[in-house]
Amino acid sequence: MTLVAAREAFSADRARAAASAPRGRSDAAVPPDPDPLPAPLLQMQGVSLEYRTPDRVVRATHRIDLDVYAADRFVLLGPSGCGKSTLLKAVAGFHAPVEGEIRLDGEVVRGPGPDRIVVFQEFDQLPPWKTVAQNVAFPLRAAGLLGRREAEARARHYIDKVGLTAFADSYPHQLSGGMKQRVAIARALATQPKVLLMDEPFAALDALTRRRMQEELLALWEEVRFTLLFVTHAIEEALVIGNRVALFSPHPGRVRSEVNAHAFNLASLGSGAFQAAVQRLHERLFEAAPEPAAPAVPR
Ligand SMILES: Nc1ncnc2c1ncn2[C@@H]1O[C@H](COP(=O)(O)OP(=O)(O)OP(=O)(O)O)[C@@H](O)[C@H]1O
Ligand SMILES: [Mg+2]
Prior knowledge:
Elements: H1 3-20, E1 42-52, E2 56-68, E3 73-77, H2 84-92, E4 99-104, E5 107-108, E6 116-119, H3 132-142, H4 148-161, H5 177-190, E7 195-199, H6 207-224, E8 228-232, H7 235-241, E9 244-248, E10 255-260, H8 272-286, E11 297-298
Parallel strand pairs: 3-8, 3-9, 6-7, 7-8
Antiparallel strand pairs: 1-2, 1-4, 2-11, 4-5, 9-10
Helix pairs in contact: 3-4, 3-5, 4-5
This protein binds adenosine-5'-triphosphate and magnesium ion.
Magnesium ion binds near residues 84, 85 and 199.
């Protein structure tokens, strides 16, 4: 087990212990925890999300409860239509819950902000008339985070981190799909968000590039230790990228269970333990939903 995996296992164990410990106890015989578990950075409490069309209401997620801790690589895994993207949009502040609330650093999320940046699946997230460096620097300037020189310096720093220094002055149409995704990741990380939100960012890439991007994202995480909320419907990707994986049931999405995936990384791919975990998740994802699906509600 690597040091990082050991630390993650330790913090996951502490999270479980904290969750099961009696609350509000003041027992003088119990010494205070020298390193108490921090509060979750991102909390979803009873979050239901809906779409309203003129003739009906579609419930996308139903009462989601999730806690994401700083430096977690938290994966939302579930079948198509279970509300993963909608939940991500709600965390980003683009979709308000009809029930429950989302808190970031204790503050209720009421709209978008530079502390939450989304990287999408599509390659056309970058304005084509800006160079790579201009694309990465732009949000820093637009949000008034930095002046021109500082923005440029920070942009180049993160472009370097994603291995695109030689392309800093190229335009998006001169880049491959994978390179464009790297620019989108550099742009997101440059704003130093509290949470990086990724919605199937590698789904449109070929298998080899996808594997390489997963590797790079993990290497970047080792270096920067950002907090990641990552959506996928690929089981292997969930286990490789995540230290924690929330499994969603089909439409409307509910959290079916949470899985600790800290033991796995790209090196685990061929191992028996990894294949067994994939198989278990596969069975859980496709087993008959125990709860009745909430149908679309006529208005
Ligand atoms: N703009 C919309 N108007 C009405 N219903 C919508 C809208 N967007 C999504 N939905 C519905 O909400 C549900 C959740 O959609 P969402 O896109 O969040 O699923 P998802 O888990 O991200 O799926 P996928 O894996 O295919 O991306 C689906 O039933 C979908 O049909
Ligand atoms: Mg989606």
